[in-house]
Amino acid sequence: MQGDHMTPDDFRRLGHEYVDWVASYWERVGELPVQPPIVPGDVASKLPAVPPTTGEALEGVLADLDDVVVPGLTHWQHPSFFAFFPANTSGPGVLADIISSGLGVNGMNWSTSPACTEVEMVMLDWFVELLGLPDHFRHAHDGRGGGVLQDSASSSTLCTIIAARNRVTPGGDLSKLRAYASDQAHSSIVKGARVAGLADDQVRSIPTDAAFAMDPAALAEAIDADRRAGFVPFWCCATVGSTSSMAVDPVVDIAGICAEAQVWCHVDAAMAGSAAVCEELRWVTEGADVVDSWSFNPHKWLFTTFDCSCLWLADSRPLVDALSISPAYLRNDATETGGVVDFRDWQIPLGRRFRALKPWLVMRHYGAEGLARHVREHVRLGRLLADRILDDDRFEFAAPPALNLVCFRLTGEDPDARTSALAEAINGSGQALVTPTVLDGRPAIRICVGQTWTTERHVEALWDLVTASAD
Ligand SMILES: Cc1ncc(COP(=O)(O)O)c(C=O)c1O
Questions:
Q1: Which end of the chain, N or C, is less packed with Cβ atoms under 10 Å?
Q2: 228: CA distance to ligand 1 center in Å?
Q3: One domain, residues 337 and 369
Q4: Which of 449, 420, 429 is nearest to 34 (CA)?
């Protein structure tokens, strides 16, 4: 058997052991240091410099996972992981990934695996229902709009920039194009613009207000000024739930300005979009009915094992026009009829995996009620932490707490240096992981509650750690 293809029987036996290993990892991850103290090269030095010449039994890899890999991980699935935005995994998400890999289909065209495309279309329509998004985002609505799964919010953004770019200058001069996003927008906006052929200064950074939300008047002025100077405003991103502080741009106002200026309006709700599973938090989708595109990442907060990002378009044609190239080897009867969706035209790569199995299993496992219950609990825990900060005059908020995110800093003497030291102490302890950030030019500590197994006990332990380390 060595060095040969694994038989289905061996796969079955070994697969049980590997799944068992993952289950055991989840059972013990809470006991591990969230971020181990390692230096660059530590992990690589434990691996042979050259690949094996002959095959070996893969049972031995499990020991290496324990000895080489696990000590070198930042444990994103640790219940005391409060850093960045989460990438909360789940049993159904992982099982779906296994099935997707096992099926090994490439759903680039409808015809290359119809189930891959059709399950995805239905899942995107399910998400519309789950989040209360506008009906015209459904594939089942009138066929003009619809949603697609991407690997990441960065890809979702890039696709919309390319669609908008193509709408104004199909194949033409890009130098006059101008894009807009707030000074709090994610770095993937500028990166997307770069990939689409724009220079960084072609993305205008629009100032934000005291709550870090885009100032729509400043956007209108910037668009006007650019037009007068002979530039071509073409794309704007409104952020719903900014990375640093969960700020929410006024989407309706921004969309109105964009519509008047014929600028594509995209919403990046990468993290905050998930909150819409709770009826009372549906304000995060405000304005979705008047924008050109809207995206969020179920892989952040909806237990949909990384990676999985949803992108909806009010009208898919500009994107398909921009990305569709049909050499002979991709042509087929189904495409020719015009009656099917070929998702290869809705994304940058040609090939695509059966990613839709993940949201399918996740939604079937939790149901809309289960997802809402968990998200609501994370928001409650975020508020609990915010209340502790409010009641303790050693601390102050660095931004208004929102949803499951709290940003704060120390008060008193030399607060900036002590805030940075506090973040280092928390992270150095291995007991929890938070993100040091900068807000208003000053250091702040940013805590996001959203890992699958985080409970009130972990938030209380974090608060004890914060207060003990602050003394
Ligand atoms: C607001 C926002 N947009 C976009 C992104 C990029 O996400 P991705 O890693 O899916 O490209 C992030 C990442 O955290 C984010 O916070």
A1: C
A2: 33
A3: no
A4: 429
The pLDDT assigned to 301 comes to 98
Residue 325 sits in the same domain as residue 399: no
pLDDT digits (tens, 9 = 90+) for 209-229: 999 999 999 999 999 999 999
Ligand 1 centroid vs 312 CA: distance in angstroms? 16
How many whole angstroms from 143 Cα to the centroid of ligand 1?
28
Point out the domain boundary residue: 353, 379, 397: 353
Is residue 123 domain-shared with residue 237, that is, in the same domain?
Answer: yes
Q: Which domain holds residue 168?
A: 105-353
Atom of ligand 1 nearest to the CA of 309: 10
Atom 7, ligand 1: residue with shortest CA distance: 153
Atom of ligand 1 nearest to the CA of 157: 4
What pTM did the predictor assign?
0.96
CB 203 within 8 A of CB 190: yes
Kindly indicate the confidence band of residue 1, based on its pLDDT and cuts at 50, 70 and 90. Answer: very low
Is 222 a pocket residue for ligand 1 (Cβ < 6 Å)?
Answer: no
Q: State how far Cα 323 lies from the chain centre.
A: 23
Give me ligand 1 centre to Cα 471, in Å.
Answer: 34
Q: What is the pLDDT of residue 3?
A: 52
User: CA-to-CA distance for 29 and 80, rounded, in angstroms?
Assistant: 10
Question: Are 220 and 122 in the same domain?
Answer: yes
Tell whether 254 and 166 lie within a shared domain: yes
Q: Are residues 130 and 220 in the same domain?
A: yes
Distance (Å) from CA 19 to ligand 1 centroid: 29
Tens digit of pLDDT for each residue in 105-146?
999 999 999 999 999 999 999 999 999 999 999 999 998 999
Count of structural domains, the chain: 2
**Is the distance from the beta carbon of residue 166 to the nearest atom of ligand 1 less than 6 Å?**
no
Let me know the angle formed at the C-alpha of 293 by 366 and 265, rounded to the nearest 5 degrees.
140
Q: Which numbered atom of ligand 1 lies nearest the CA of 243?
A: 16
pLDDT for the residue numbered 172: 78
340 and 385 part of one domain: no
